[in-house]
Design brief:
Blueprint: H1 10-18, H2 26-36, E1 41-44, H3 51-64, E2 75-80, H4 84-97, E3 105-108, H5 115-122, E4 125-130, H6 132-140, E5 151-154, H7 157-162, H8 166-172, E6 181-186, H9 191-200, E7 205-208, E8 219-225, H10 231-240, E9 246-250, H11 254-266, E10 271-274, H12 280-291, E11 297-300, E12 313-318, H13 325-332, E13 342-348, H14 353-363, E14 369-371, H15 377-381, H16 385-390, H17 413-416, H18 418-421
Parallel strand pairs: 1-6, 1-7, 2-4, 2-5, 3-4, 5-6, 8-13, 8-14, 9-11, 9-12, 10-11, 12-13
Length: 422
């Protein structure tokens, strides 16, 4: 099936060809026709499956109909995404779709000055891409009016819930027109998603190209059972085994990410870190160093688990297992993008067996063992009490200990800070 068979206009097909996009992906084949018909759509698909075009192309085609221009401080279409990086990538794709048209795109995120964004919105925009926290800030200042926003997209909706944006989403919804089209896309379907969908969507068409917990077929997964104190050494050995190939390393905390990146660089493996405490400029420079090969290793917290689309990533390392099992799927989905092959390696200490069991439960299979053997309940229970109490918040210390703080419950400190971080 070609794009013209989906109902797209020739000018959009030409724009896709200029971007090097020729064939629609499965999610695009299923989502574009009902979206063009004006139906609400609820899409379940993994990251890297082409969701941006699945919602972006119908939006642009609707907005191009007639010669309607946005009014001052208004947005004709709104796309909400959980992270700055994802907002930037969506905005870049939209710029390609609207090439040679009168449509205007604006991006608003936290971590940068708000005044230039206020000025950018004064003339009005056709497509506004935003993180929920910064959008609320702009709404509170009267810088943006959503009363004429008749097209809405919630991208990576499950991550927005996980990051604690549910309250912001509840503030935004009443400001939108009742008569609107809403497209919601998610990689997983947690229980809270049904409530969110009921609030935002009206008799949606459901499309699905992946099930919760399913991982890309071309990702080679493996796990090493290793003591926490030995993780830095093993990670170094693994990274040195492919010095010219890009690797993404996931740690649990912001401080842990910084510490690990410094450790690796000191050991001769150039690494940069990215997390919510970094300014937008720092995050941009880190991503540029990673993508151009100056720093072949990027150490990240889960703020980057679904906000990055970097095709060069061939290796993903779970230096620490995530607290939320679905996050494992999102993490390893950073590799094997666009049909490429990739590898995902997990380092599991005794106190992470509970997380591993949850991950394998949603995968419905056991991850192949590369070294060591599964920790027994006795070994898990033998861990020091301080380590057991702090494991969900602390990053690794070179000596194997744990930092205190951070909180382990989803919705704790991490959620309360999410608005400022995004």
């Amino acid at each position: 099936m070609d794009f013209d068979m989906l109902g797209l206009k020739p000018r959009l097909i030409t724009a896709l060809e200029e971007m090097g996009i020729k064939d629609p992906t499965p999610i695009q084949k299923q989502a574009i026709p009902p979206a063009l018909d004006g139906r609400d759509v609820m899409g379940l698909a993994q990251t890297g499956t082409g969701k941006t075009a699945a919602f972006g192309l119908p939006l642009v085609q609707h907005l191009l109909e007639g010669d309607v221009r946005p009014e001052k401080r208004r947005a004709r279409a709104l796309i909400l995404a959980p992270t700055r990086e994802l907002v930037a990538q969506i905005g870049e794709s939209l710029q390609g779709f609207i090439r040679n048209s009168h449509l205007r795109v604006a991006q608003v995120v936290g971590g940068v000055g708000i005044n230039p964004q206020i000025k950018r919105l004064e003339r009005g925009v056709d497509l506004l891409v935003a993180t929920p926290g910064r959008l609320i800030d702009l709404m509170d200042r009267g810088a943006v009016d959503l009363s004429a926003t008749h097209f809405l997209v919630l991208d990576e909706a499950d991550q927005m819930l996980d990051m604690g944006f549910i309250h912001a989403l509840r503030q935004i919804e009443p400001k939108l027109p009742k008569e609107r089209q809403t497209l919601l896309f998610s990689a997983t379907m947690p229980k809270d998603m049904e409530s969110l969908a009921a609030t935002y969507l009206d008799r949606p068409v459901r499309v699905q190209v992946a099930v919760s917990g399913q991982t890309a077929d071309k990702i080679e997964q493996s796990i090493h059972f290793i003591a926490k104190a030995e993780k830095p050494g093993l990670l170094l050995d693994l990274l040195r085994g492919h010095p010219a190939e890009a690797a993404l390393v996931f740690a649990r905390t912001k401080h842990g990410s910084d510490r690990l990146a410094k450790q690796l660089t000191k050991a001769g493996v150039n690494a940069v870190a990215i997390h919510g405490n970094r300014s937008q400029g720092q995050r941009t420079r880190a991503l540029e160093a990673f993508t151009n090969g100056d720093a072949p290793v990027l150490v990240a917290t889960d703020v980057a688990a679904r906000g990055l689309d970097i095709p060069v990533v061939k290796h993903v390392y779970n230096y620490e297992l995530p607290n939320v099992p679905e996050t494992y799927v999102h993490r390893i989905g950073r590799t094997a993008r666009a049909g490429r092959e990739g590898a995902a390696v997990t380092l599991c200490a005794p106190d992470e067996m509970a997380e591993l069991k949850d991950i394998e439960r949603i995968l419905k299979t056991k991850i192949p063992v590369a070294s060591g053997s599964r920790w027994t309940p006795a070994q898990e229970e033998a861990k020091p009490k301080q380590q057991r109490g702090g494991r969900r918040g602390g990053g690794p210390k070179p000596g194997g200990g744990q930092r205190r703080g951070g909180g382990g419950k989803p919705g704790g400190q991490r959620r309360r800070r999410s608005r400022q971080s995004a």
